[in-house]
Design goal:
single chain, 505 residues, alpha+beta, four-stranded antiparallel sheet, two-stranded antiparallel ribbon, 42% helix, 9% strand, globular, disordered C terminus
């Protein structure tokens, strides 16, 4: 059935106009070529298993194959049963909020087909090596991980279909997406006992925490790349898929929390869902692409704060430093930039990447480093390094907007990490990376690496000090940091090149 979009083709990560650029990248650029071949080889491995048995992979989804439950019953943040009977198999809800379990498969090929017996699920006990029929309540996050793994395969295969035009990849991906989403259309919110009020606020439709509704990202990507194929498939109803996406997004918007990592993880989920949808006027409730994008950018809701407000409230407006330890702060900046990059085709979304605070936040990571490239170790996180994901995405944006000076400086930071052996563009390349990272790093402007000997990060009450020799050889450099609370005793931390861990040395 036809989707809501008037024009066919993907809208989320990339558009048809950009296809030639992506094709050239995966054919001529080594890191992208290797990443694409790795992604394709994994898909091809499982596609081969479906040639003689079309349901081989679909049957591995963690579904209520026998029971067809429409609602999970929870108690003490664990799934203890189910109720209702849908006309088709429905996706299983997560086993527990607690991630600890001894029951999980190591590979997709170890999963059992049509895995349901009166609500139990058969999994390998990693302590005994034997498969056992167990209650979902002791399986931790295994159920959602199974479905996420398979949906990511569907998303990757859908991308290959769009890139190559080979319909066998659509025929591989579409049944996974449709089986899950058709069943999901009958799923009701899980039952939570009345006394568990905290859980009621944060629970999702597939997971015990809305920030773990990660399967939505793969659902949105798979649907987006399969749009042309689905338009011609009478057995698949795009309206059912889009309604399911909207339901998950609405729960994420209403749940969780509007501060810190929760807020940003929610923003990411909302963005993926939003960009797979059509314009607001195509839905009866007038809640489509623009509606959800506006929430991500501008909301001041009880459980969701828009990125525009996050930048104003989270960063020190004078120093552009996020007021947390690097292990949190650097990742927060990367999360903001990733969401903003997804929204960069939106006029209002571009405002985030254009905000000077965001660009300065990336460069200020560099200023919180010791000469050997490790950050200060304040707070409850360990020494970390500059977030290369944030640098890569800001570099891509700088090149798109013709800011060659910033691009050269960001290139220098990445190349320094590569030379130090701390980063490789060919390791763990994802679909997102292939599409969003620039093909080749521009000529670096190494002057950006020459930091002032002192730096004060005001919201952290942190002074960074470093002394580098004229040669730039970090073996003969010294770095130290001094920090403390107002009125408290300052702490001096030094990190010579051979110092590791959190010890004073």
């Amino acid at each position: 059935m036809s989707s809501h979009f008037v024009s066919a083709g993907p809208k989320l990560l990339v558009t048809n106009k950009q296809r030639a650029v992506i094709v050239d990248k995966v054919q001529t650029v080594k890191w992208a070529q290797n990443g694409y071949q790795s992604l394709k080889s994994r898909v091809d491995f499982y596609l081969a298993k479906t040639e003689d048995k079309p349901d081989w992979l679909v049957s591995r989804l963690a579904m209520n194959w026998q029971t067809h439950y429409t609602r999970a019953i929870t108690k003490d943040s664990r799934t203890v049963g189910g109720e209702g009977k849908a006309p088709v198999p429905t996706p299983r809800f997560a086993g527990a909020r607690d991630w600890k379990t001894s029951h999980y498969p190591s590979e997709i090929e170890n999963l059992k087909p049509y895995n349901d017996r009166n609500g139990l699920i058969e999994l390998r006990n990693q302590e005994t090596g034997k498969f056992e029929w167990v209650k979902p309540s002791i399986t931790g996050h295994t159920i959602e991980k199974i479905n996420s793994q398979l949906m990511q395969l569907a998303a990757d295969a859908a991308f290959i279909y769009w890139l190559t035009g080979d319909v066998k990849y659509a025929e591989f991906a579409a049944p996974i997406l449709w089986t899950y989403m058709h069943g999901f259309s009958y799923v009701k919110p899980p039952f939570v006992p009345s006394e568990e009020n905290k859980l009621k606020r944060i629970i999702g439709l597939t997971s015990y925490e809305v920030i773990h509704e990660g399967i939505l990202e793969s659902i949105a990507i798979a649907y987006d790349f399969l749009r042309d194929y689905i338009d011609e498939e009478p057995e698949i109803d795009a309206n059912v898929i889009e309604t399911g996406i909207k339901r998950i997004v609405d729960v994420v918007v209403a749940g969780g929390g509007n501060r810190g990592n929760w807020n940003l993880h929610q923003a990411s989920k909302i963005t993926y869902g939003a960009l797979a949808l059509a314009a607001d006027q195509n839905y009866k409730d007038k809640k489509g692409r623009q509606h959800y994008v506006d929430i991500v950018l501008n909301a001041e809701l009880p459980q969701q704060l828009g990125l525009i407000h996050v930048i104003r409230q989270g960063y020190d407006q004078k120093t552009a430093v996020w007021g947390e330890a690097p292990g949190y702060a650097f990742d927060t900046t990367a999360n903001i930039i990733e969401v903003a990059s997804l929204l960069s085709n939106d006029k209002n979304g571009r405002k985030v990447l254009q905000d000077p605070i965001v660009k300065r936040a990336v460069f200020n990571q560099l200023r919180q480093m010791y000469p050997n490239g490790a950050s200060h170790g304040m707070g409850d996180t360990s020494y970390t390094r500059i977030n290369t994901r944030a640098v890569e995405l800001m570099l891509s944006w700088a090149l798109k907007t013709g800011d060659t000076k910033t691009a050269a400086e960001l290139s220098a930071i990445l190349q320094a990490e590569i030379v130090a052996g701390k980063y490789s563009r060919e390791d763990n390349v994802s679909l997102f990376d292939i599409i969003n990272y620039t093909a080749k790093l521009p000529q670096p402007a190494a002057t950006v690496l020459q930091q002032n000997p002192t730096y004060f990060a005001e919201p952290l009450n942190l002074v960074m000090l470093q002394n580098k020799p004229a040669s730039g050889d970090i073996r003969y450099a010294l770095g130290a940091s001094m920090l403390g609370t107002k009125g408290g005793m300052p702490i001096l931390m030094a990190l010579p090149l051979n110092c590791t861990g959190r010890d004073m040395c």
